[in-house]
Amino acid sequence: MPNESTTIDRAAALRAALADRLCADGKITSPAVEAAFRTVAREHFLPVEVSLEIAYGVDNPVVTKRDKDGVAVSSVSAAYIQARMLEQAELRPGMTVLEIGSGGLNAALIAEVVGPHGRVVSVDIDHEVTDLAEVLLRSAGYADRVTVLQADAWRGVPDEGPFDATIVTVGTGDIAPAWLDQLTADGVLVLPLIMNGITRTIGFRRDDDHLASTSTELAGFVPLRGAGRQVVRLTVLQDANGWQVTLQFDAHVPADLGQLHDVLAAPRTEIWSRVTVPHQTSFADLHLWLAWFLPGFCLLSADDGTELAGEHGSWFPYAVVCGAAFAYLVARPTPDGDGVELGARAYGADGDLAAGTMVEQIQAWDRDGRHTTPTFGYWPADSDHSQIPAGTSVLDKTHGVVTIRWPERY
Predict the structure, then answer these.
(1) How many domains does the chain have?
(2) Residue 301 contacts by C-beta under 8 Å, 6 or more apart in sequence?
(3) Which one of 77, 102, 213, 215 is the catalytic residue?
(4) Residue 391 pLDDT level (bands cut at 50, 70, 90)
(5) Does residue 227 fall inside a structural domain?
(6) Active site (annotated) includes residue 77
(7) What gap in Å lies between CA 69 and CA 67, rounded to an integer?
(8) d(CA 253, CA 249)
């Protein structure tokens, strides 16, 4: 067994290597965030069974708590997204920062960036999470720089703020009015915003009476719990053997899902787009495009025994319902073997319509969205929605609307 000195040296070497990699990949861009990653011992805040190699991996989220059904309810984000969110927040020494979603590690990183004259308030709805975070932060020497509170942050943090930056580390379907109320006039809000089932971590600043995006990052998070939790609707379809395909809707649920009864017994339709993607090239913005511009969009999952599951590796969990059919995103190798062609397969009597509708949007993304970067806005309910630029796409939320704009689309 390695002795304690060897373990400390190995952790230090891995910590330095992680910081080097994050800087080289452009995830860390400021000296302050780099210094934080070279200082904070990640292993101190993770379960003892987590190896140092996992702790210091670039893309290794670690689940720290599950509910009675085994669903993750608390986790430590992957190092790359922690670095990006700190950079998105534009942190500076002396700031007061709110972290929503506790655990200890991210709060320690924030504390290092804002320095001894800054302050961090870390909030979580789960007292087991906050109790442990408080112990870990105290033992790591951050007790006087981080305040840990158990509360439902959706309703605000009483007797705290205003905050120069708020970093939300759980997926949220909306922006709580309290978060804006407790944010300074020039403050930054960074949060993983769920938009019709697709999440982007967005940095927002105020622009008059609304918010405008300053940065975006691709990442996934455990969902927010409490008053602001995201409500979804599930539609379960069953095949002849009792295996299930589940469609998950976030917004704009089709009116008559009853038309999908026995749809898995219907012949399958397949349409290809002639849109190709080279290997090792991300097309994640296509998923975002479909979520915004494809009426009836939903997320798709399938039991292992289904025909769908048997196509493992050729389909993606993004679907659309059109009348008496649903279609889902698929890919097949290009003839030259250098990439894949995107298309859609569909089940149901309206399979041609469903698959064709998805393929039309794949082609629209290729034409108008593929080579540009979208920008986002958030307009609270009490803002002047008449000032939303013409042609901008709008997604309704409970406390306001989210907007997206692809430069080439308009």
Answers:
(1) 2
(2) 245, 246, 248, 317
(3) 77
(4) confident
(5) no
(6) yes
(7) 5
(8) 6
pTM for the full predicted model: 0.94
**Per residue in 85-97, pLDDT tens?**
999 999 999 999 9
Domain assignment of residue 261, given as a range: 233-368
Which tokens is 82 given? 């922690």
State whether 239 and 364 are in the same domain.
yes
Confidence of residue 407 (pLDDT cuts 50, 70, 90): confident
Helix (H/G/I), strand (E/B), else coil: 261: coil
C-alpha 357/C-alpha 362 separation (Å) is 9
pLDDT of residue 400: 97
Q: Which residue has the tokens 């112990």?
A: 135
Strand pairing class (315-321; 325-333): antiparallel
Same-domain pairing of 341 and 193? no
Structure tokens at 146: 């981080």
Tell me the two tokens of residue 220: 């996934």
Last residue of a domain, one of 217, 247, 273: 217
| Confidence grade of residue 409 (pLDDT, cut at 50, 70, 90) | low
Q: Provide the pairing of β-strand 119-124 with 96-100.
A: parallel
Does the pLDDT value for residue 118 go beyond 80?
yes
**364 is a domain residue:** yes
pLDDT of residue 3: 60
Q: How many CA atoms lie within 13 A of 192 on its CB side?
A: 25
Q: Where does a domain end: 193, 217, 241?
A: 217
- At residue 121's C-alpha, the angle toward residues 118 and 123, to 5°, is 165
Token pair for 39 = 């200082």
Q: Tell me, yes or no, whether 189 and 276 share the same domain.
A: no
- Residues 125 and 102: beta-carbon distance below 8 Å: no
- What token pair was written down for 5? 């000195």
